[in-house]
C-alpha cells in the first residue's frame, strides 16, 4: 500500500544534480542563476531532463539542469549574510500581504524548499528515499515543523504524532528492503513542547541540582537528571513551574512511546543537539531513554542488530565540554550496561553561543557564576582537533568491542555528521588502522561484517552531495555507510524552519563545504554535463537493454533529440524560473564577460541563467502588476529593504541596468563598442509624483543629463569614426511634477487649429506660445503659474543640454511617453529641433540631426504625424531626427481610452495594424533618406523606382533615423528596403554592406538586456564603417532605479508579452543554455 500510493512524483536527485544526492565529481546545482540571479531565477521545481541510472552503476548519474540552476541560485543567496540574517522578517512580512504571500510561497517552494526539503508529507519523500537507497545512501528523516510560541493551537502535539508516523513510515520502507535498516528518524525536542522555554528552565534547574564537576558548561548529566523523570524535582524549584513539570513529563512519556515503537520496527532515533541553554535538559532526556532502550534486546524483541543502540545522542565538537562529556557518557553506558549511540557533529550555532556568553557576562549580578570562556571553542582549528580526537576515541572503542572476549563489552553505534572531507578521510583511515576495514584490490574500504551497523556518515540533504557520493562509493559494505539528513513538512509550516535554520547554520553555510563552496561546485559540475551525458548515452547503447533500461534509453534519446530538447528544457526550466522569482540570487557570483567583436559574443553561463530567471519572472503578469507594491513594501521594512535591494541588484538590475552612475557603465560601453555596438545612455531616475514638491530630484536629473553628455563625449573622444554614444531624455522626469506636462498637453490639444491628424495630434508653430507667450492667456486656458514657470525652466534647461551636446557632438533622443504627455513632449522637441538641428557647415558634428523625436507606430496618428514632421523640417530648414518604435504603453492607453469607436481612440486595436504602420513609416523614412543621400551623399548611390512616388519634399531635407525594434521581421524588412533603395548592397554570403555615409544617418536599437540575439545578428550581418546597432543602456543608483524597474515592467507589458518579449527571450536563452551544455 505504501509503495503504491507514494509514487506520484519522480525524485529530483542524482549524482549530478544538486537537489540530488551529490556524488563526488558530480555537477549538482550549477549556476543557479539566477536567479541565481539569482536569483533568479529566477529561476527550480523542475524535474526536467532527469535521467535515472541503473542502481548497479556507481553513482547513478542523474542530471536535472533545472536542479543545477536552482542549486546555484540558492547557494548564491545563502552567501549573502543580510539575506540570511533577515530571512525570518522577510518571510513573515511576505506572509502577511495577500498576493505577496502566494508569490513568496511559490518562490520558496521552487528554491529553498526544493533544495533542502524532501516533500510536504512522508509519502512525498518516498521517491527520494527510494532513489537515495538505489545510490547506496540511507536517510535520516526529520519532521521540520516547529512549535511557535506565537501560534495558537497545539502544534507540538501534532509534531509528536508525526514523529510516531515517521517511525512507522521508516519501518514500512525498510520492510521492503533487503536488510540494512538505514532509514532512521531525527527528533528535535524544542519542537515537541508547548514552549521551548520549559526545556530552558529545566536546563537551568539541572545545572543548579548537579554536583560540582570539572566538565565545562553546559556540563554532563548525572543520576539526578534521570531521577527528575521518574520522581519529579528533588527540591523546590523557582525555575520550573507546575506547567513546565507536567509538559516535560508528558514529553518523556511521548518519547518512551516513540522509542518503544522504533525499537520494535528496527528504526533508530537520533536526538538533535541544540543551543547550550537547552542542552542539559536534552542530555537528561537522552540519558534516560538510552538507559532504557539501548539495553541488549531479547531474542526477537527488535529488528535492530543485537547490541546496537536505538537512541543516539548528539555530541557537538565545538563545545569545550565534549571530550569530558563523551568520556562520562562512555562510562555511564558501561556502568549501566547499555549501548551508546553517538552522533558526532561540529555544531551549528557558534555565533549565537558567543553572543549568549557575552550577554551573560554583561548582565551578571554580583555572586552569579558565569564561566570566563564561552561554551564553544573560539577557533575552528580547535573544533577540528576536538572532532578528530573524539572520532579516534570512538573508533578505538568500537574496534575493542568487536575483538573483546567479554559479551558485555560496551557496544557503540556511531554516526559522523560532517561536511568536512578531511574528517571523513580521517575516520576512514582510523577504521583501516584499527582493523574495522581494509583496502581491497579495487582500492575500496571493505568493512568487516557488522561494522556497517555500527558506523556511518551523514550530511544535510541539499548540501555536500559530492561528499555523500564519495562516501557511498569508497566503502564496500552490505548496507549504506552514508546518510542524508532529510527534512520534510508542509510548505507553510516549514517556512519558519527554513529561515531559522539558515540563521542557525551560518557557520555551516560560510565554512568549508558551505554555500560558497557549494555554488562553486555547482558551476563546475554543470561544465562537465556535455561529456557526462555523451558518455552515458554511449555506455547504454553498447549493450542490449531490456525493460526499465530500454525505457531509460528512450528517455535519453528523447531528451537529447534536438527537436524535443528545446521544448522540454524550456518548459521545465520555465517552471523553475517562475518559482525562483524572487528569489537572484544572489547571482552576485556572475561576472559579465563580453566577447570581442571578431567572434560571436560568448555570454557566461551564469549570465544566461540569470537572464532565464529574470525573463521567467517577467512572463508572470501577476508578478509584473504587483512589482511596484512589492518593492514599495519591501523598501519600507528595515532589513528587508537591504535584502530586496541586494536581490534586485543581482537579478533585474544586472539584467537591464548598466550601473549606478554613468562612469560605472564605462566597462559595459567599452565592451559594447568592442563588439561593434553603440550605446544610447539613459539616466533612469524618475520624479515620484506622490512626493510632489518635497523632492528636488528633477533638478538633479537635469544636471545628470549634462553629465551624461560630457561622459558620452569623453568616451567618444577616445574612439575612431562616427560618435555612436548618444543620450536619451525622458521629459516627465525633468519637471517638479509630471502633471505640468499633462496639463500642457491638454492645453495644446484644445488650442491647436483643427486638422486631420488623429489624437493626440501633431505640433506646430502655435505650440511655441507655451515657451514665449503671455502668461495670462495660458493661465486662463488651464495652466497654473507654477506649471508655466516649471515648463519654461525646463525649456531653458533643455536648451542648455542641447548646446552642450552640440559642442561635444552627442545626439539626444527624446523618449515618447503616454498620449496624455505626448503633445507637450512634441512641442518641446519641435522647438529644440528647429533651433539645434539646423545644418552648419562649420560644425563637424552637425552633419546629422542633434535632436531626435520618438514616433510610436501603435498610434493611429503616426503616418500623418511623420509626414507633417518631414514637411516642417523642409519648411524651417532643419534636419529631422526620427526614432521609430512600436510603443510600450498599449495597455495603459486602452485602459485610459475606453471607447474604441471614438475618433480620439489613439492606438490601433490589432497588432498587425501596428506592424503595418511601422513598416510603412520605415519605408517612408528610407525613401527620404535615399533621396537625401542621392543628392548629398557619395556619388554613385542611386534610388529604386518606387523612390519617385514619395512625398514631394526638398531633396536637401536631411534626416537621421534610429529604428528601435525587437522585431526580427521588421529588421529584415528594413535591410531589404535599404538594398532596394540603393543604400546598401547584398553579398553572395548574404552580408549587407552599407553605402558610405549611410551609417551616419541610420542605425538600429534594442533595449539592454533584451534581444541580444537580434543585436548580435545585426552586427554579424551588416557591414559598415561604424556601429549600426545601439543598445539602450539605463543607469542610476539602485535605490533610485527600483521604481524605474517596477514601472517599466508595468509600462512594458505589451513589449514583454509580445514578439521579442519576455517569453521569447526566455525561450531563446533556454536554447542557448541547452546549446552551451549539450552542444
What keywords describe this structure?
1079 residues, alpha/beta, TIM Barrel, 51% helix, 10% strand, Proline_DH_dom
Structural notes for this entry:
- The chain has 1079 residues and is an alpha/beta fold.
- It has 40 helices and 24 strands.
- Among the domains are: 371 residues, Alpha-Beta Barrel (TIM Barrel), CATH 3.20.20; 373 residues, Alpha-Beta Barrel (TIM Barrel), CATH 3.20.20.
- Strand 20 and strand 21 form a beta hairpin.
- Helix 4 crosses helix 5, helix 22 crosses helix 23 and helix 24 packs antiparallel against helix 38.
- The two termini are 44 Å apart.
- The N terminus is likely disordered.
Major β-sheet annotation: 8 strands, parallel, barrel
Overall form: elongated
CATH topology group of the domain at 659-1031: TIM Barrel
Structural class computed from helices and strand pairing: alpha/beta
Rg value: 35 Å
Low-confidence stretches: 1-62, 149-153, 531-600, 689-694, 938-956
Termini separation comes to 44 Å
Provide mean pLDDT, rounded: 80
Proportion of helical residues: 40-55%
CATH second-level architecture of the domain at 659-1031 = Alpha-Beta Barrel
What is the CATH domain class of the domain at 659-1031? Alpha Beta
The percentage of residues in β strands lies in 5-15%
How many helix segments?
40
How many runs of DSSP E, i.e. beta strands?
Answer: 24
Strand order of the largest sheet: 3-4-5-6-7-8-11-13
